[in-house]
Each structure stands twice: as C-alpha cells, then as structure tokens.
Amino acid sequence: MPGREHEIPLRLIQNQPAMAPVLLESLGFDVPHHTEAVNTSSVLTNCDPKELNSDGAVLLRDGARPVLAVVVERQNGHDHEKRLTWPAYLSLLRLRLECPTVLVVLCPTDALARWCSTPIRTGHPGFDLAPLTIGASDMPLIVDGEQARALPELAVLSARAHGDTDTRTLEAVLEALDATANKNRAFYYDYVLAGLNEAARKELEGMMAVETYQWQSDFARKYVGIGEEKGREEGREEGRVTEAVRNVVMILQTRGFSLSDATRERIESCADLDTLEKWVPLAVTADRPEDLFD
Alpha carbon 232 to chain centroid distance? Predict the structure, then answer.
C-alpha cells in the first residue's frame, strides 16, 4: 500500500490542480493558455486484462476546450515495472481527452529524479518518453507571502523541499496555512514538520509561538493552543503514572516485601496507567511481589 510519502504530494495537487501548470513552467515547459485547471479521472484503463491507474491527472482547459492533460506520478524508489506503464498513461489519456498530454514525476530526492528522467525506450523511432521530473532542488522556491497565499499547496511542497536550508520557506508556509481550508491546515503543517531536520523543525515550531512574530495567524494561535493543551494533558497523565508507581512500591514495602532489582525496575518502568491501577489492589493481597505480573 502507498504510504504518506507517496500520497501527500499527490493530495496537494488534487486539492489544488493549478499547481500542475506551475510545476511544468518551473521545468521550462511552454504551458498553453488556459482558463482553468481541474482534476480529471486518473483511471486510464482502456481494455482488458490490465487496469492502468495513474497517481493523478489534471486537465487544463481554455474555456470548454481541453488544451493540455498532465499525468502526475509520485515515485519514492526505483520501480522499473512502473516506468513501463508511463507511456501507456499518456497514450490512453490523450486518446480519451483528445489533447496534448505530458507526464510529471515528483521525487523526494534529486538522485531519484535523475533516474526517473531516463528516457523510456518504446522501440519505435522517435517514440521514446523522457519523463519530466521534479526532485528536491527542482521544486519551486516559495518565499513570498502573497505567492504562498495564492498557491498554499505549492508553498507546502516548497517548505518540505527547501526548509532545511532556507527558513524563508518556513515563514511562507505559515502564511500559506492561513490561506488554505481549515480542514487542511494541521495536516499540511504536520507534513512539512515531519520532513525537516531537527534544526529546521525547531525553527518552525519557534515560529508557531504566538509571541514570536506579530503577524502570527489565527491558525498559529489555535495550533499552539492545541499543543499547550496536549502538553498539559500529557503532564497530568505522567503525574498519575508516577503516583501509581509510588503507590505500588509503597504498599509492597509496607507489607514487608523486599523488592528485587528486576521487580522494582519492572514496576518503575511501566508507563501504562491502566496496568498500574490494576497492580495497586493486587499489591495489597499478593503473596509475593512477582504475582503482580502473572
């Protein structure tokens, strides 16, 4: 099953199809004039027995006229069999929509992007496919707040790709989160945070502190509030665990038991409150400390 690394970049494009032409332009591709970008079906099956489904597909239209279809693939590793399906994707989508069709492959690293860009030989003269690929360094750099607000999903991919080395992208992604739908904000933030190194992660978390920047958003305040409440709850939980451990040990010692190092360690290392709360009454009646674990 595809994991988060595969699915999230694709969801960003599904949430914002206008990213497809922007990504193409970043590669120097001459995108035709169009008035809208919409998701189109990524099911490319044309006949039995093999079903072909691309990761995503975007259609650019000029009015009602299709002008360009973009097949979007996310590649996380060297998959030779997957590459063999890409020429079929373009042919079948072009057949269905009757417009020019291109392939864009999103890759987490530049090395994988180079591998994916290797031409796919079909055997027919002049009919080889050289995929358009975007690695980490090819991802557009979004540092301007207005640009981030215009295409929040692109700012998310930019911060994920460049946040370790350019903190301006982290500032931009917070602006982007303000401009996106409520249902996506925490999800996008968590995706960026998970892809950063420790230093950049601390930098972003610091930016989320309400007192750090006067331009901080309602989202930042809400998110920090969630974090503070979560921290308080975790603190309360930790306090209850500590108290339960102390009660188990105290009861056993009051009853005259001498705890072995192994038994004491097992009790004190237990972090599950439900288990500890079961041990407390058992400590009152057990014939020996080890009976707690039976």
Answer: 26
Evaluated on CA atoms 272, 275, 280, 285, the torsion sign reads negative
Which residues does residue 62 pair with via DSSP β-bridges, in sequence order?
65
pLDDT in tens, 158-210: 999 999 999 999 999 998 988 888 788 888 888 888 888 989 988 888 887 64
- The residue ranking higher by pLDDT, 232 or 155, is 155
Cα gap 114→116, rounded to integer Å: 5
Strands annotated E in the chain: 36-39, 56-62, 65-74, 101-106, 132-134
| Residues with Cβ within 8 Å of residue 150, at least 6 apart in sequence | 179
* Pairwise CA distance, residues 225 & 209, whole Å: 10
pTM above 0.90, yes or no: no
Q: Classify the C-alpha dihedral 162-163-164-168 as positive or negative.
A: positive
Radius of gyration of the chain (CA): 27
| 60 close to 96: Cβ distance less than 8 angstroms | no
Question: What is the CB neighbour count within 10 angstroms for residue 208?
Answer: 21
